[in-house]
Write a structure and sequence with these properties.
The chain has helices at about 5-20, 35-40, 50-60, 70-75, 100-110, 125-135, 150-160, 170-175, 210-220, 230-240, and strands spanning about 90, 95-100, 180-185, 185, 200, 205, 250-255. It has about 260 residues and is mainly α. About 35% of the residues are buried.
Length: about 260
């Protein structure tokens, strides 16, 4: 490798490492919202995502599958899951890697209820995910300190700083190095995952963090990974680590 190339790579790596957010720099995207959107998120009677939460509450009680078993039949009141959403993605022994909350819900559905899994980002799965995530609102994000997750966490870190797509940009270049600046009239956030599932006005509906990650990949003209891909779960885990301690806001509202 040529000396100039080596020097350029060293400068790029140094810039990326210096740009990483210190704990005292972390800011929820909520702080950059307009007063109207902040009020919409704070007020459950105005937050559109609560329509999905209501659907999730119905699904929680609804028997399903050949076992005709409901979520409540195993877990009781959904409030018993307080704190659970703040600890995902988590290690999953059967797959030898990480799985996110939506995948964990589907695992319960297939194994405990003997029902077909819901498609990722389907209305039903988002509804139950929003219901479970709501139970952790106000608690700090606390991804598992599990050594078995280290390879997944490292993959997520690598993907976060890796340039991609025709625009040759990385997540870190926008969300670490240029947060607070404007891109196309929109303020660049720090990209914390503490408000997902999230109702976005541009979607006119509820969506997952993976949907947003795929949107970003399309924005830099990269080929998005399919929903549920290990790369997306790894990015979710890294983002959770990077946002450790921020309070959960799920389900959030964004432009």
């Amino acid at each position: 490798m040529r000396p100039r190339r080596i020097a350029w790579l060293a400068l790029l790596l140094a810039g990326t490492l210096q740009a990483q957010l210190a704990p005292e720099q972390r800011r929820s995207d909520f702080e950059a919202l307009s007063p109207d959107l902040q009020a919409m998120q704070r007020d459950d009677t105005r937050n559109p995502a609560m329509l999905w939460v209501q659907q999730g509450a119905q699904l929680w009680q609804q028997p399903a599958g050949t076992q005709q078993r409901s979520c409540a039949g195993c877990h009781g009141e959904v409030q018993s899951l307080r704190g659970v959403a703040a600890r995902y993605p988590a290690f999953d022994a059967p797959r030898g890697g990480a799985l996110n909350l939506a995948q964990r819900i589907n695992r319960c559905r297939t194994q405990q209820q003997q029902a077909a899994p819901w498609p990722l980002d389907s209305e039903e799965l988002l509804a139950l995910e929003a219901l479970v995530a709501l139970q952790s609102r106000g608690l700090p994000l606390a991804p598992p300190d599990d050594a078995r997750l280290q390879p997944v966490r490292e993959l997520g870190r690598q993907l976060y700083v890796q340039r991609m797509g025709q625009l040759n940009l990385s997540c870190a270049q926008c969300h670490d190095q240029r947060w607070g600046q404007r891109l196309g009239g929109t303020r660049i956030p720090q990209a914390h995952p503490n408000s997902y599932p999230q109702y976005r006005l541009e979607w006119q509906g509820l969506g997952s963090l993976q949907r947003r990650l795929r949107n970003c990949m399309s924005g830099v003209r990269a080929q998005p990974w399919p929903l549920g891909a290990p790369e997306l779960v790894a990015l979710e885990l890294y983002l959770a680590d990077r946002s450790h301690g921020l309070p959960m806001e799920s389900p959030g509202v964004r432009p």
